[in-house]
Here is the input.
Amino acid sequence: MKIIRYAWLSVILCLGLVPAAAAQGAGENAITLPELSVTAEAADKAFFAPDTASQGVVTGKEIEQQPRSRVGEVLEVVPGLIITQHSGEGKANQYFLRGFNLDHGTDIDITLDDMPVNMRTHGHGQGYADLNFMIPELISTLHYSKGPYFPDLGDFDTAGAVQINYVDTLPHDLALATAGTLGYYRGLGAMSRPVGAGNLLAAAEYVHADGPFQIPDNYNKGNLVLNYSQGNPDNGFSFSGMYMNDAFHATNQIPQRAVTEGLICLYCPLDPTDGGSSERYSFSTKYAATTDTGQLKANAYLVGYQLQLTNNFDGFVTFPPPIGDQFVQQDRRKIYGGNVSYMMPGNLFGFDAKNTIGFQTRTDDIHIDLAESTGGVVRFTVRDDHVIESSAGVYIENRVQWADKFRTMTGLREDLYYGSDESTLQANSGKIVQAITSPKGNLILGPWQNTEYYLSAGQGFHSNDLRGALTNVDALATEINFQQGNPTVVAQGKTPLLTKATGYEVGLRSEPVPNLKLEGALFVLNLNSEATFSGDEAVTTPGRPSQRKGIELNASYKPLPWLRLDGDFAATHARFADGDPGTGDTEPGHPGNYIPGAANMIATASAAVEDLGPWFGALRFRYFGRRPLIEDNSVTSKPTPLVDLRIGYKFSEQARLWLDILNLFNNTGAHQIDYFYPSQLANETAPVYDVHFHPVEPLSVRFTLSMTF
Here is the structure.
C-alpha cells in the first residue's frame, strides 16, 4: 500500500496539484520513491493483441542481435521461414514457409515502408522479391502474419506476409565497417538531424562479396536512403527516397553427377559466364491523422526497377555444344500505387467496435525480354513483351469486443485486375479483366490463466504471370522449329490470372510463467492450382490443386536479464489434392502426390546475450528439413543444419566490436537448395535427370566495428 500511495503522490506532484512542502510533510520516506515500471503490463497486452497465434512483431534490436550471412536472412526472424540462395548474391532469395517452396516470392507478400517488394509478371519468377535494397540497421519493426486471414493484405498473401518498417530518426549517428573472409566487406553510415519542424535521415551502404566460388561473385552493391518526417506514426507524414545498384557473377546450381565424377569442383560453375545486375529506386510518402472520430492513413509510391540475368541451368539440353542453353532475361518496370484507409470507432449492438474501410491500387508498366545467348552474347530473341498490369482492391474490416474475453475480427476484400500484353507474337497479345472476392474471419477468446485462443478462416489469392493468361503459342519451341525449317506453331495452354487459396487455423498463445511465452498453431491451406512459371522459356504451366496441413510451435524465454532463449518448430504435410493423375513436370513414369520442394520440417533455436557486462553475442541453430524433389518422393534432398555464432565486446556506449562465425562447424556437405530436372553436360549425348544443388558456403568469419556519435 505504501508503494501505491507514493506512486499517486508522485503523479500529483508532477501535475503540480500539491505544493512540494505539503508533500514533504507527508513523511520523510516520501522524498525518495521507488521506481515503478509498467513494461511488463504493456508487454503482456502486446503479447495478447494479435488476431492469430501465427502473427507477431519483431523489433529492430532483436533483428540486429542475430548473425546472418546475407541481408535477406533478416526475414528468418519470422518463425518457420527459411531464406536461401541458389545463385549470385545480387539475385532475389528463395523463400520457404508452411510447406511452400515460395520460389522468389510467389506466396509471401513482402512490403517495406508500405511499398510492395514483390514483382508481378516478372522476367525471372512471379512475385520476385529482391530485398538487397534493404538496410537492416534502419528497421524499426518487422510485422509478420501467416495465412489469408487479414483483409488489408491482397496479392501474394497466401502462406504469409512480412511488413518491414524503417525508423524515421536515429538516437545517434552510426558508422559501421565489416571485413571478413571470402572477400566480404561492408561499410554503412547513417545519421539524422532536426530540420525545421521535422527530422531528416540519411544512410549510405556499400557491400562487396566474392564467396567461396572458383569464379568470385564479385558482388558490388551501393545503397542510399533519404527520409524526411514530421510527427509520429499516428499523426504525421514522411517523404522517402531510396536507390540501390548492384552487379554480380553467378555460380548457379550444379549437377550432382558432375561433382561426383570430378568434372567440376564443389564451388565451380556449370557456365562461367552467368551473372546479372539490378537497379532499384523509389519515392514514397506516408500520412496519418488520428482524432477522436477516427484515423486516416494514406501512402503513395513510385518504384523504378530493372534487372538483367544471364543463366544456364541445364547445360546443352536444347542446344548442343558449343552453343548451350544460356538465356538472358531483362525486366524493366515502373510501379505506381497507393493505399488509403479510414478507421472509425463505433458501437455495434451496444458493444465497442472499430470499422475500417480501405482502398489499394497498383499499376506495373513492364518491359520484359527473353533471349537465348552463348557466353553472355545474345543469339536471338525469344519474346519481347510490353505488359500493363493494374489492380484495385477495396476492403472492409470490423472489430468487435463482445465481452471482456471475447472479440472478433472479420473482413471482406474485393480485387479487380486488368492486364494487357503487346508481344512480339501477335497470337500472344491481348487483354484480360478478372475479379476475386476474399472473405476473412478471426475469433479470439481469452486470456484465461494467461492463455488466449484463436480460430481463423479466410480466403486469399496470388496472381500468376499475366503472359500465361494470354499466351497461345510457345514462343521458344516455335522459334526453334522455324530455325530448323519447320513452320509448325507449338500451342501453349493458358493459366488463370488469379489463384485462390483457402485457409483454416486454430491456435493459442500463453505465458504460463513469467518471461516464458509460448505459441502454437494448427493450419490447413488449400491452393486451387500449383501453377509454375519457367522464366527460361517464358512459359506458365497449369498446376494441380494442393493441400498443406501443419503444426507450428514457438517459445521465447528470458531466464535472466541478459539472456533470451528462442525456438520454433514447424512440420508440414504437403500433397497434391487431386488423387494421382500420373502427370507432372518431372521425369515420366514417376507420378505421385508429393509437392516438389515442400520442406517437411523447419526449426531454429537461438540464445542471445545482451549487456553481460561489456559482453554480448548470440548462438543460432537453423534446420532446413528434407524436401521431396519429385512427385513420388523417390528423390529427396538432404536436410541442412547450420550453426552461426556471434561474440561481441562493448568498449563504451559509443564503440562495439563483434565477430560473426558463419557455418560454425563447416558443414560443406549441406546444400542451400536442391532441384531435380534433366541437364546435359558437354560430354553427354542425351539429357540426364539429376539432383542439381547450390552448396552451402564454408566456415567464414566477419569482424564488425560499430561507432555511434
About this structure: The two ends are 44 Å apart (CA to CA). The mean pLDDT is 91. The first strand starts at residue 56 and ends at 59. The first helix runs from residue 2 to 15.
